[in-house]
Structure formats: C-alpha cells, structure tokens
Amino acid sequence: MNIVQKLFTLIVKIVEILKHLIKILWGFISSIVMILLGEHRTFFLNLKLLIVSFLSIILFFLTSFSALNYFEGEVITNQLTFVLDEKKNFLKGLDDLNLRKISFWGLPELELSGEKFNYKNFTELNQTKVIKLKKNEGQNITPQLEIKSSNKEQENYLKVLLIELSKSIAVNCLKYDKSRNLIELYLDFDIAKSCSFQTNYNDSKKIADIEIELGNQPFDVTLQGYEIQQPKLRNQTNSMKLEWTHKSGNKTLDFEVIHPLFIELELNEDETKDNDILLQRILSVTDTRLFHQEQKDYVTNIIKGSVRMTDQKLNIEPSQFLQFQGGKGIERLYNISLTSQGIKVLFNGTARKVLSGLNFDSPGYNIRGEFLAKFMSKEQRIAIIGFLIAIVSTLLIEWIKEFSEKLSNNNNED
Q: What residues form the membrane-spanning segments (predicted)?
C-alpha cells in the first residue's frame, strides 16, 4: 500500500470518528436545549427537522451530481489507434523475436551497405559495398522496401531492435493477423481518417528512429518505386529484387523517419505458436480510438471488454462502441499484447461518463462518476443516507406527537 492509499484510509477513519462524535454531541445539545427551552421545544424540533432535511437534500444532490472520476478497463480489439504522449520505444517486446519479413512503405530515400549485392548482370552494383536508394519521381507509386531471409533452411537474424517514436506521433490502425503472423501499423503526424496509407512529403518532422538487426546470411530485398542512384542503374523497372549480404562487423540498419510510414512485420510461425506476445508494458497516450471510419460510417474494433468506474462496471459486447465524455479519456495503455483473438490491452484514465452501445451517435448504456464516490465508498454513502433517513423519520414522529399534544391541549382549554 503506497503513501497516498494510507493517507486516504486515515482520512476515512477520521471522518468516521468525527461523524460519531457529532452524533453524540448533537444528542447532548438537543437534550439540554429541550430542557431549557421548555415551551419552545416545538420551535427547536422544527428547526432540527429543517436542518436535517436540508442536509439530506444536499447529500441527494451530491449523489446525483456527476464529476470527473478514475476508470480502468480491458478490451480485446482487432485494431488500435492512439497518439503517443511521450518519446518511447513502441514495440519493445519485439526485440527478442526473429522476424521472417519486414516491409516499409513511404521511405523517400535510404542507404544500404553490405559485403555483397547481387542484381542480375549489373556488374557495377555487384562490386559496390554501398547503394543509395531514392524515390523514383517518374513513377506515381508509394515507394516500398521489403527485406526477408533468402534461405528458409539457414538460420538468420532479422529483428526490430528499436522503433522509438517521438512525442505526439500517431500510431494508426495497429493490427495483428494471427493467421498470417502479421503486424501492421501506420505512423503519421496526426490521427489518419482511414487505414488507407497516404504519404505526404511536403511536411516533415521527426517521427521515429528505427534500428534493425540483421544476420550474416543473404537477404532478399524487393524495391518498388525506387531508383538506384549510386551506382546509377538505367532503365529501372517498377519492381526490383536484389540479394543483399550485410556486413558481418555491423549488424544493424539504422535510419530516421521524417515522413508518414506504413510498416508490416511478418513473424516466424514458431515465435507465435503457443504464447501471447507482449509489445509494451505501459504507454502514456492521448486520443485513443477503438473504432475506425469507413467512408461516412463509424465501425467499432472491439471484440469484447469491460470498464470499471468506482463501484460500477460496464461490459462491452461485440459490435459495441466505447466512448468517454469529459476528462482526458484513456491516458495510459498497459500490457499491449498480441493474442489469437486480437490485440489485448489494459487501460485507465479519467472521465465523467463512460458510454457503450451499438450506435455511435446514441449509445444505450453508460456509467458515470459520482461526486461523493471520490471521497467514500458505496457502503459509506448508503450508511450516511440511511442514518439521515432514520433521523428525519424520528424527528417527524416527534413533530407529529408534539403537534398532536398541542392540539389536544388547545381542545381541553376550549
């Protein structure tokens, strides 16, 4: 138990003690005043009834008043979109996994160095140690680079050591296809309107640093939309396939991303056979979306899940949307894992209301943050309300009895 929890528990206990002391003091003062006032007892009884009723109304109002509150939840989704609120190695959990293939769409230029290149009968390229790739402006296609092991029978290394995203970068349409062992994600400056990748070379700022570890065996490199500038290759086709043997002394390929980028990672089947894959333990995020847009309609990505706020729980069924009103919404993602069902993620944040339903514009279910729930549990609130109801009932009985006695005395005097 941390210091904040201990302090909160101590405050609750102090409040309980003060409540009992006030009750005892109230009864003592009431008895003294009733004795001293004598004939003015009815007035004092009315005053007590008014005060307690007023307190009951205030308590009822506070109970019905919604306020920002903490929530936590868990979902399994087939797609996840969010904006990172910190600089972080996003796919930390992949640095120990051997990949079968890596593909990038949108890199405008890249430099590859190695022990050997082999492309048809291009002697000059086959003799060089470094080649420079640049987007072919004469081809109206998005440049694509694909790297995979040439020989399946020979053990080779192909690992993503680092995809370190800059703060405020959007991770769009993160998907996992278990049947194809395929991870897809789309990095951009902002949340994308759709999952159809659209690159933009007009704006540029740092999106990510990427580092890939490569083994000593040859790799097949497929290029689309590129031209080899150095050494100069003439009459290049839309698609080129060359063999690349990386330097044995330098096992990494490092580059900086400054334009939107689409990434596809194909895992080896034996890496995903039995266990779930943990991508990241914790991420600070903003603008998390568990839905996407298809033309003018919104489509939910949630397979199943649940959210808890104070003592309330909201279950999310398949095809239902999950939304948040007020507050920051989802602020942290925990234990982002790849499972056979999809992407499993835990999350927490703040909101006034959590909503779910089949209709995006008018969800049918909700739970809300109660103001008093921030300070006391449901059992404590029920106890206080019951206590006030008991006092009001007792005072009403006394008031009726006092009124009846007074009426009876008046009749006797007449």
A: 21-38, 50-71, 382-400
Name residues whose C-beta falls within 8 Å of residue 81's C-beta, 6 or more positions apart in sequence.
170, 171, 172, 173, 174, 191, 192, 288, 289, 292
Q: Which residues pair with 177 in a beta bridge?
A: 182
Nearest Cα to 77, choosing from 339, 281, 323, 385?
339
Which amino acid does the sequence have at 279? L
Length of the chain: 414
pLDDT tens readout for residues 362-411: 888 888 776 565 665 666 666 666 666 666 666 666 666 666 666 666 55
34 in Cβ contact with 47 (< 8 Å): no
- CA-CA-CA-CA torsion sign (234, 240, 241, 244): positive
The CA-atom distances, in angstroms, between 340 and each of 76, 79, 252, 303 are: 10, 13, 31, 12
The two most distant CA atoms of the chain are separated, in Å, by 129
Q: What is the pLDDT of residues 199-241, one digit of tens each?
A: 877 778 899 999 998 888 889 999 998 888 877 766 566 688 8
Q: The pTM is what?
A: 0.75
Q: 39 is written with which tokens?
A: 């004939």
Distance from C-alpha of 207 to C-alpha of 200, rounded to nearest angstrom: 13
Which residue's entry shows tokens 């999310």?
316
Question: Three-state secondary structure along the chain?
Answer: CCHHHHHHHHHHHHHHHHHHHHHHHHHHHHHHHHHHHHHHHHHHHHHHHHHHHHHHHHHHHHHHCECCEEEEEEEEECCEEEEECCCEECCHHHCCCCEEEEEEECCCEEEEEEEEEECCCCHHHHHCCEEEEEECCCCCCCCEEEEEECCCCCCCCEEEEEEEECCCCEEEEEEEECCCCEEEEEEECCCCCCCCCCCCCCCCCCCEEEEEEECCCCEEEEEECEEEEECCCCCCCCEEEEEEEECCCCCEEEEEECCCEEEEEEECHHHCCCCCEEEEEEEEEEEEECEEEECCEEEECEEEEEEEECCEEEEECCCCEEEEECCCEEEEEEEEEECCCCEEEEEEEEECEEEEECCCCCCCEEEECECHHHCCCHHHHHHHHHHHHHHHHHHHHHHHHHHHHHHHHHHHHC
Q: What pLDDT is attached to residue 37?
A: 47
Q: Cα–chain-centroid distance for residue 2? A: 24
Question: Which tokens sit at 310?
Answer: 């104070």
